[in-house]
Amino acid sequence: MLLSFAGASGYMALFEDNYIYFPAREVSSTPAYFGMQFEELHVTTTDGITLHGWYMPVPSSRFTVLHLHGNAGNISHRLSLYRQWQAMGLSVYAIDYRGYGKSEGEPGEAGLYADARAAWRDATTRLGLKPESVIIAGRSLGAAVAAKLAREVKAAGLALETPFSNIPDMASFHYPWLPLRWLAKSRFDAMESVKDVYLPLLLIAARDDSIAPAWMAEKVFAAANEPKKKVELAGGHNDFDHYSFMAYAVAWREWIGTLGTGGAGDIPRL
After folding, report:
1. How high does pLDDT run on average in the chain?
2. Can you tell me the mean pLDDT for 138-149?
């Protein structure tokens, strides 16, 4: 029994990445399917990896959402989300991490952080987007990547959707009978990162989330600095924005309305 327990723990620790990343290589659709104008992105990271993505502008948009997606699939599986943001008047810049979609390489924690930095550089240099017009947004695993990036740059705001606190908490929650909390090499610690973020924060949790339960989002929110807004919507981890479609749009629209107004949008970076 003890050997079996130790063996299972060791196996999961050794092949940890297999339990974190679930990339899909096939890009099943493009923004053209929804009639959206877009530019193909080919972004090179500092370690020489070429990433693929899309820039989907809206004429005269005030903000662009730089989106960092979750741990499964690729950007082609988020087109309905990008379309919804465009309906709010937001342009969208979305990349696939290394190992996802048409992006080169293999995923890993340090690599995903490097991918986010490369996307930021491309958006704010080559495309010429003003940092104060870019909203960094991440969902699930991408929330941890987004929070890490937001520690390092000055943006319009940070939006975290269904975030988990960190990988040790996730390991303990999903495998409570194994000591994986102490064996996990990856951190993806959104709770720790937000302590050093001084941007307006929108945090959206899913009330019926069985993957990253709402109490984890609450831990992240409690650790974050003001100004911050938290919304809990009905639905699960992967369908809350569809299940609570109208409430989701209202939450975003209300928060966007506070950015850059001399209130929530103008908090100094310390």
Report:
1. 90
2. 98
Q: Residue type at 204? A: I
Angle between helices 109-121 and 141-150 (to 10 degrees): 60
Question: d(Cα 23, Cα 97) in Å, to the nearest integer?
Answer: 9
Q: How far is CA 139 from CA 4, 114, 166, 220, in A?
A: 35, 17, 13, 13
Residue carrying the six token digits 């924690």: 109
Does pLDDT of 269 surpass 50?
no
CATH number reported for the structural domain that contains residue 86 in this entry: 3.40.50.1820
pLDDT, position 22: 95
By C-alpha distance, which of 23, 20, 19, 22 is closest to 11?
19
> Is the CB of residue 149 less than 8 Å from the CB of residue 96?
no
The tokens for 42 are 């080919």
| 210 Ramachandran zone, left/alpha/beta (phi>0; psi -120 to 50) | alpha
SS3 for 170? helix
Whether the full predicted model's pTM is greater than 0.90, yes or no, is yes
Q: Which domain, by its residues, includes 166?
A: 2-266
Q: How confident is the model at residue 176 (pLDDT cuts 50, 70, 90)?
A: confident
Total of domains in the chain: 1
